[in-house]
Amino acid sequence: MDSTMIQENESQKDKGSWLTAESLVYRTTGDVPAMTYRLFEEKHHATLYQKYRLTPPNEVKELVLQYLDKKKGPPHELAVDLGCGTGQNTRLFAPHFQKLVGIDVSEQQVQEARAIPGLDNITYRAGTAEELPFPDGSVDLLTAASAAHWFNAERFLKEADRVLKPSGCMALLGYTEHFSLHHGSCGDRLKNIYAEVMKALMPYRNTRVAVANSKLEDLFKAIPFPDKERIECIPVKMQMSINAALGLVETFSMYQTYLRTEPQAATALLESAKMRLLEEMGVSSPDTEMEVSTDYYCVLACKPH
Question: Pairing state of beta strands 164-175 and 289-302?
Fold first, then answer.
């Protein structure tokens, strides 16, 4: 999930200068800038992630597995899920591999992931996408679900090239922040409420979110493998309660930044949105479901044999 952040090796701290802030550590090493985004490390945020973050749909999972079968084929021994957050994507792919390792820079996210019952072949560990604890040519599939926009692209791609087996694949998937809400005859009114919430959060949006909203266009171009493709629009519809939809917004990095900056205003924003949704839908329970539509994207690439 998008809780994997770019983090420098602790042993290298004495080689650069650090400027610390509540949500950001910035460091320059030579000519290569690196950032550590501290936006997802609190326990409360990790709990929200586990409760409300989306699990990628089966059609995206099948797309990735079919690509891996076509390009590499069995056996499917080791997959690594980068920016695993609380493990939604990790658990989705686990039945298809002998071993799956979920990695996230946030120890709190990793602890939440470990607390969820799952298959015995899953291991979680704290770490970054730019320094992977695997031998050269040992990984069949690298995945990242709503996480790759936080990576240092140059370092991540170099590391991916190192750890992937010949014909090994990477699948970088996610969705943008654009959602449409539908219920009965409400028309565009629910969608407009959501749009107003996002407009209020816009001043707190990290610039890296624009990378996700571009569907990883620049990262796709930077992948050094000639065999690659980018699927930009995979329509998905799901049923989601009012509470779940607002809970998802609460997991967004920009909402968390707003909450730290203006806690009363941030809380009031979601409370107002909930009351307006209830009124427009003509219901009294925030557990009432509505149809939520969004588009997933997926970047696929295969390492040369």
Answer: antiparallel
Alpha carbon separation from 240 to 181, 191, 192, 244 (Å, rounded): 9, 14, 17, 6
Q: How far apart are CA 99 and CA 78, in angstroms?
A: 5
Contacts of 200 (CB under 8 A, 6+ apart): 258, 269
**3 state SS of 258:** helix
> Is pTM beyond 0.85 here?
no
Distance, CA of 105 to CA of 286 (rounded, Å):
33
3-state secondary structure of 263: helix
Quote the pLDDT of residue 177. 82
**Separation of alpha carbons 124 and 66, rounded Å:** 25
What's the CA gap between 75 and 216, in Å, rounded?
29
Task: Count the alpha carbons within 13 Å of 10 in the hemisphere toward its beta carbon.
Answer: 2
* 114, pLDDT greater than 80: yes
Whether residue 127 is predicted with pLDDT greater than 60 in this model: the reply is: yes
Confidence of residue 213 (pLDDT cuts 50, 70, 90): confident
